[in-house]
Every structure is written in C-alpha cells, then in structure tokens.
Design brief:
By secondary structure, the chain is an alpha+beta fold. It folds into 2 domains: 81 residues, no CATH class; 280 residues, Beta Barrel (Porin), CATH 2.40.160. Helix content is 20%, strand content 40%. It contains 8 helices and 21 strands. The chain has a 16-stranded antiparallel barrel. Helix 1 packs antiparallel against helix 2.
Length: 486
C-alpha cells in the first residue's frame, strides 16, 4: 500500500512539475529537466518493486490496453469477465454466477435450455467455476483478486397453464412461478458463500396467493476449499443435500424430484479430482424414532454421493449414485405425509433411500434416466400402500435433441415417468410429456409442454389420500412459460 501511495505521489509531482515548467524562466529549465530525470528513475525503481509485490499486474494492464476496442478514457471498461472479476468493482452482476451458472460448466455440462438444472452440489459447482477463472487469470497473467467479491444474479419465470383435472374439471391459471435472487460472495481464495432468496407462490388456507408472496431464504451456505490447491472441501448451511440429481427438461416437476429431493441444514465433506467427485453429509433431520435410536441421531440422517464423467470419442457419459439414511426426510415426504401433524414425525423405523442416474450425450442428442426409491418397505404404521408397508419408488427417462429455429437455439424433449406405491405422495402412477424450448433473446427463453398423467388404480389405497387425487382417472396439462435470467 505504501509503495502504491508513493507511486501516485511521484506521478502527481511529475504532473505538477510539467505545469510549473511552462511558467518558469528559461534559466530554470535545465534544473527542472535534471529533477524530472531523477524522478523518472525513482518511478522505474518503484515500478520494479510493484512487479515483485504483484507479479502479472503490469502485463495484465498492458494486455487490456492493447486489446481491440480498448477505451483508455473509460477506466471501468473491461474486455472479458475475468478482467472485470480481477480489476473491476467489488460488486458485479453476471448470470455466470446465477441459477444458470451450471450450464456449460465443465462439472455439469447441461444444456443451457434445460428447465431444471441440478441444485445439489451447488457448492462444488461454484468451486469449479472459481478454479476455471483462476486458471484463466494465471494463463493470461491477470492478477487473482484477494479482496472480497460479491456477484449478484437472479431469475423470473411466469407461466400460463390449462389443466383438465382428475375430476374432469377444466382450469386455466396464470402464475409467477418463480422469482429468485442469488448472492455469491468470495472472501479470499479459500472461502465461498452463497445466499439464494426466493418467494412463496403457493396459496395458503383462508388467503390468496398474492398475499402469501413472501420472500424467504431458500438456501444459504459457506464453503471452505480451493480446488487448485486441494481436492478436499467443506460446506455448512441450508442446502439441498447431495442425494439424487433431479435435472430435467420438463417444465412441471418430475416424480423423482418430488419423491427424493431433500433440503436441510447440513454439513458436507467433499472430494473432487478431475471428473471424479464424492461427498459425505449429515444433518439433524425432523423425524424422531420410537424404537430405533439411530433415527434421532445425527448419523441416522447421513448419506453419501459419488459421481464420475467419461468420454468415449464424441460420446459423453455421466454416472452418479447416492444414498440417504432416512428417505422420510425428503421434501415430498415431509410435505405430504410426515409433517402433517405433531405426531406424524415420530416414525417406527427409518428407511434408507437409494438413487442412481445416467446421462449420455452425443451432440445434438441427449438421453438421461434416473431412479430413486426406498431401500425397503416402511413400517405400515408410518407409510402404507394397499394395507401393507409401502416402498415408494420412481423412475424418469428423457430424450432431447438441440437444433435451430430461425437461427435461435432450440430444444425438443420427450419423457416418461413411473412410480410404485407412491399414492400418499400425490404422485401419478405414470406420466408422459413432450416439450419445445426456444432461446428468444440472450438469457430469455420460452417453453411449452404437454403432460399426460395416469393415476393409480381405483382399487389402490394408501395411508393418506392427497386432496384432488382421484384414483382410476387421468389428467392433461398444457403449460407455457417464459424464463428471464439476469
């Protein structure tokens, strides 16, 4: 800091000397020239000291000045995101850090048009992006910032849907389906933090949907790690635990996601090396055991995730598997069964959940499949199907192709889903869907989906029958949605 202050002072003195020289008698010009030459020598010495203290700074500034279109009068103009990241303001905005940040990243190479990107391992995604930016900075002699950086991004999506419900009644609805603001903080090279703020769009009993549009902290976590230095990292906070993947081209929610995605306040210890990654995690959970002490313990709600990517020629293959100590902790289980009243959180035994998914990509085609389910039957007193302990399971299979519509990136996808013994969770027995997406403008795209759901048989029974779920029937839904990311 002292060196930089001295450097600025000398520049000021030089500038003042030049002005003073214009109004100085000729007999003093020689003395001024001698003084100027001496100051120039001191500037060179200080510049060499800066190069030692901050290697790469001079080269990066010269690189910016030589780049095409450089505006020397605009000190806030940078030609690449990494230059702004390194030398720009402490608060920046870019969808690269937002909810679409996983698209095109080396860790999760999903299509930018995919509707539902994975929300598990968001901490690892941010670490991979930071590593990529640091590598770019080193390669191009750009100084890696050590000061705190805050990145802001967000999204809005509104939809119109037409439903023919199980009871054959028709319904037209307009909704602001999602509103989200993401705040990513980088405090030095080892600490990354994230806050995701969303709003609740669901209608409350006795009120309107608009009156319930309250902001809430959806996710917030701190991650300690730097993948350029160590493959190990640690995260703590409120997040989706690494169980399942749940990415999808569907506008509406898949049965696998509704059955298994789990958000809680957890700790994660992870390892990531090249394409291989593994995580172990634990969280307190909400359910309490009546005859199984491990359910109440922290270890009773632990789990692990493992994943790897492979490339064979032009074919990319992504394989993942995971397990959770108590699938009753999933968001769908908590919403529809176990958190309905004060006593339902007391279960007689915990049941492990297992997940496996595969994605194969051969441009422009992608095929993916995901399975999630309970490892065994629940105690019939906790969750039942047809008068015996239920073992809920679900599978989702999708295929997609990317192409151009009048020069705009587009995608067409079809899919099939099926569940077993999941009637209590308000999930259909089968669902079919077809969807078309088009990128209208940059970070703005439109999608339309047709979905056909087939419910369980009329003779099937469950612990609780969800409202509006009429067995032996089917329903149809057409949804149009516009997404904006910023």
């Amino acid at each position: 800091m002292k060196i930089k202050f001295a450097f600025i002072t000398i520049i000021f003195v030089l500038f003042s000397s030049n002005i003073f020289a214009k109004n100085t008698p000729k007999e003093n010009v020689g003395d001024l020239r001698a003084r100027t030459k001496s100051l120039e020598e001191q500037v060179k010495i200080l510049q060499s000291q800066i190069d030692v203290a901050h290697p790469g700074m001079s080269k990066s500034i010269a690189k910016i000045q030589k780049s095409d279109g450089y505006d020397k009068d605009n000190k806030n103009k940078f030609d690449t995101l990494i230059e702004m990241y390194a030398h720009g303001p402490a608060v920046v905005t870019s969808p690269a850090f937002g909810i679409r940040r996983a698209a095109g990243d080396e860790f999760e190479d999903e299509s930018p048009l995919m509707t539902e990107l994975p929300k598990i391992n968001e901490d690892l995604v941010l670490l991979h992006i930071r590593r990529k930016m640091d590598k770019y900075a080193v390669k191009n002699n750009i100084e890696i910032p050590t000061r705190p950086i805050i990145a802001l991004s967000g999204a809005l999506d509104g939809n119109i849907n037409y439903k023919q419900e199980y009871n054959k009644l028709n319904k037209l609805d307009v909704n602001l389906d999602g509103a989200q603001v993401d705040i990513i903080g980088e405090t030095g090279p080892w600490v990354t933090s994230a806050i995701s703020i969303t709003y609740d769009d669901e209608r409350v009993s006795g009120g309107t949907r608009v009156s319930n549009s309250k902001l809430k902290l959806d996710r917030g976590f701190i991650t300690v790690g730097q993948l350029n230095k160590s493959p190990m990292y640690f995260s703590i906070g409120q997040m989706f635990v690494p169980f399942g993947r749940f990415s999808s081209n569907m506008l509406t929610k898949t049965s696998t996601r509704l059955l298994g995605r789990t958000k809680d306040r957890a700790v994660i210890l992870g390892y990531s090396k090249d394409a291989f990654n593994v995580q172990i995690y634990g969280f307190p959970g909400e359910t309490k055991g009546t005859n199984n002490g491990t359910v109440k313990s922290f270890l009773g709600h632990s789990g692990f995730h493992i994943g790897n990517n492979y490339k064979i020629g032009k074919v990319k293959i992504d394989l993942e598997g995971s397990a959770i100590g108590n699938i009753a902790e999933s968001d769908g289980m908590q919403k529809n069964v176990f958190a309905l009243n004060a006593t339902s959180e007391s279960i007689h035994s915990r049941v492990w959940g297992i997940n496996g998914n595969i994605r194969v990509k051969y441009d422009p085609f992608t095929v993916s499949s995901e399975y999630i389910g309970a490892a065994r039957r629940f105690d019939s007193r906790d969750l039942a199907f047809n008068n015996q302990g239920a073992r809920p399971q679900a599978i989702n299979v999708e295929g997609a192709v990317e192409f151009k519509t009048m020069g705009r990136p587009s995608l067409f996808a079809i899919g099939y889903g099926q569940t077993w013994q999941a009637l209590s969770l308000a999930l259909p027995k089968q669902n079919y869907f077809a969807q078309y997406d088009v990128d209208i403008f940059k970070s703005v795209y439109f999608a339309v989906e047709y979905r056909h759901d087939v419910n369980y048989a009329l003779s099937d029974t469950a612990t609780s029958m969800p409202a509006g779920s009429i067995t032996g029937r089917h329903k149809n839904t057409v949804t149009g949605k516009i997404f904006v990311y910023f």
